[in-house]
Task: structure prediction
Amino acid sequence: MLMKKIILFYAITSLLGLVVIWAGSNKKSKNILESTTSSTPIETTSKAPGQASNDRKLSPTPITPITADNFYRNLKTAECQIGGLIKFTSLTNAEHLNADLTYKGIDSPARLIKWNVSPVDDLKIGPNLAASLKLPDGLVHIGVVLPEKPIASRYTLTASITYGRLIDHDIKLFEMLCQGQVDVVLSF
Result:
């Protein structure tokens, strides 16, 4: 019987404690809400002692949302250019001599960068996706990984890149051949 009274006592005090905590937090959140939702502008100037107040007030400045129409309207024609040399001194070590991709007007991180290798071999070339690029314009180094048994001592890389433009309220995809080429030379 004594044990039931002790359990009942702890249950009632715990319940009262929760009610007090809930009531206090509800009151605090109401005060915070009231203090942060003021409909009057906030004074932005302060006066130094002995200085006259000019009583300027802030008024809200409307923000123009970035819409697809605005974004695509500001994009110029897409451009890309590659150039430079990658010189391999072993199968896994290469000297990067300004082998870069320069691009402008790429609209989405989902756009593809397609690489062509001559002669055809299993080189891994990147980047392949605009997700890792700073959009809409930028420059990125070109990376190449050789296959275990390269078939040539010299390769030529060319590239194309996809991009989108808003035409008649629809995004149309295009592909542009990049100007230039990158030479990959194996000197081992």
Observations:
- The chain has two helices and nine strands.
- The first helix runs from residue 2 to 36.
